[in-house]
């Protein structure tokens, strides 16, 4: 921990906290990024120095990393204090701030942007690295996803050192990247989006799939046997010894049960008894507004964020079968200006229910639903959407800025 910091690192930490506090006081977010930036200017090795002597887990992947980090933090808190980064601050500036703010925490659970994994491996010397999944973002194409997997594979080979990898056995790109490491714990975390892994990342041949098993017809890359999995029945995780750990999650869907399985696998590597960790996961009710439930005019809205094609598919798996669904789509800079990716998402599961479409690009979404034979109505904004559905539960699915707009309407609900 930070007891042995050099005077320069201590000074950098003080400046970091001051900058973060100033940023908060002037209403510019929580100050994690600016604070970290200031600290790293004064002491470029600050992240490394602050991580020294702690037990660190890095959690990365396209989807689910924020939730898995929250679950992991809740699980490890059973045995000690955990430093963790605030939502969205998943680059080295945010990690530096997270560690600086929790000098006494023996453990650290750090969500890591996919492109910074190598840098964090070098700086934080993690005990565990969890790799969840890789799929395309709005702007990426499958080629770029494979390139990222190749970069991970190379970086793990050179920098993973003594780390144990917790990796998703159901994602061929993750398996290919992680299999260069000597110690891997495999989790059957599922893959709702298979379009980016139709071909073998190792040799480019066709991948055969039978049920949950997959295998390359040419080089033999295949699904490793998982030690951890989501139970086939009920809401539980099955551990390496076949023991079943019951879940009572507030967060919906199979995807979150898979995130829970990954968190329990990580926690057990830190010496936490999964039987003690599993009930703690039910404390997580929402994650930066995601899954939050808000009420207005007798409508109980549940807010689901879906940033990319895989996220949209996962959200359709999470929604309850009967309530009306509000879909909101924007295409501002962080969302990507091009909405053509919505044609990669299958919307047919929404057919037969009440669907309301809104957001800046509601007409794009309307055309897409028309193609999939889903009936819908189009409204101007979330207020009009609320008025358009009867009192009772409502599922709301939105992409990044559309989600932030809705969150703002409800006073930035967490
Ligand atoms: Zn192959």
UniProtKB/TrEMBL annotation:
Keyword DNA repair: no
This protein's record includes keyword Protein transport: no
Positions of the catalytic residues: 338
Pfam short name (any one): Mur_ligase_M
Catalytic activity, EC: 6.3.5.13
Residues noted as binding Zn(2+) in the record, renumbered to the chain: 200, 203, 216, 219
Keywords linked to the UniProt accession: ATP-binding, Cell shape, Cell wall biogenesis/degradation, Ligase, Metal-binding, Nucleotide-binding, Peptidoglycan synthesis, Zinc
Classification via InterPro entries: Lipid_II_synth_MurT, Mur-like_cat_sf, Mur_ligase_cen, MurT_C
Gene Ontology MF terms: ligase activity
Domain Lipid II isoglutaminyl synthase (glutamine-hydrolyzing) subunit MurT C-terminal: 305-402
Pathway membership, UniProt: Cell wall biogenesis; peptidoglycan biosynthesis
Domain Mur ligase central: 59-267
Similarity comment: family membership: Belongs to the MurCDEF family. MurT subfamily.
Subunit structure: Forms a heterodimer with GatD.
Protein function: The lipid II isoglutaminyl synthase complex catalyzes the formation of alpha-D-isoglutamine in the cell wall lipid II stem peptide. The MurT subunit catalyzes the ATP-dependent amidation of D-glutamate residue of lipid II, converting it to an isoglutamine residue.
Entry protein name: Lipid II isoglutaminyl synthase (glutamine-hydrolyzing) subunit MurT
Organism listed in the record: Glycomyces rhizosphaerae
């Amino acid at each position: 921990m930070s007891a042995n910091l050099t005077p320069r690192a201590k000074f950098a930490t003080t400046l970091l906290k001051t900058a973060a506090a100033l940023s908060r006081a002037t209403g510019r977010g929580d100050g994690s990024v600016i604070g970290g930036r200031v600290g790293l200017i004064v002491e470029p090795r600050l992240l490394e120095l602050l991580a020294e002597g702690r037990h660190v887990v890095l959690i990365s992947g396209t989807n689910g990393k924020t939730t898995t980090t929250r679950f992991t933090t809740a699980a490890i808190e059973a045995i000690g204090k955990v430093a963790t980064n605030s939502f969205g601050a998943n680059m080295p500036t945010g990690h530096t701030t997270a560690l600086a703010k929790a000098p006494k925490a023996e453990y650290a659970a750090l969500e890591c942007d996919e492109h910074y994994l190598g840098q964090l491996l070098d700086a934080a010397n993690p005990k565990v690295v969890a790799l969840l999944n890789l799929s395309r973002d709005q702007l990426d194409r499958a080629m770029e996803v494979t390139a990222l997997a190749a970069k991970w594979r190379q970086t793990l080979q050179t920098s993973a050192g003594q780390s144990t990898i917790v990796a998703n056995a159901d994602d061929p790109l993750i398996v290919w990247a992680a299999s260069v490491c000597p110690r891997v714990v495999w989790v059957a975390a599922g893959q709702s989006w298979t379009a980016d892994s139709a071909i073998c990342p190792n040799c480019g041949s066709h991948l055969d799939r039978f049920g949950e098993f997959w295998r390359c017809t040419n080089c033999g890359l295949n699904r490793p046997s998982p030690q951890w999995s989501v139970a086939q029945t009920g809401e539980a995780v099955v551990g390496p010894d076949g023991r079943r750990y019951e879940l009572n999650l507030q967060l919906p869907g199979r995807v979150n049960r898979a995130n829970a399985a990954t968190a329990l696998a990580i926690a057990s590597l830190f010496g936490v008894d999964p039987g003690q960790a599993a009930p703690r996961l039910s404390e997580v009710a929402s994650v930066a507004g995601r899954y939050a439930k808000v009420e207005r005019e007798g409508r109980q809205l549940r807010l689901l964020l879906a940033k990319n094609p895989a996220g949209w598919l996962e959200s359709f798996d999470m929604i309850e079968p009967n309530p009306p669904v509000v879909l909101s789509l924007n295409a501002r800079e962080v969302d990507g200006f091009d909405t053509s990716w919505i044609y990669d998402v299958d919307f047919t599961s929404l057919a037969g229910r009440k669907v309301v479409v809104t957001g800046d690009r509601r007409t794009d979404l309307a055309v897409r639903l028309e193609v999939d034979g889903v009936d819908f109505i189009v409204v101007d904004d979330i207020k009009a959407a609320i008025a358009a559905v009867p009192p009772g539960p409502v599922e709301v699915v939105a992409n990044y800025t559309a989600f932030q707009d809705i969150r703002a309407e409800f006073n930035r609900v967490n």
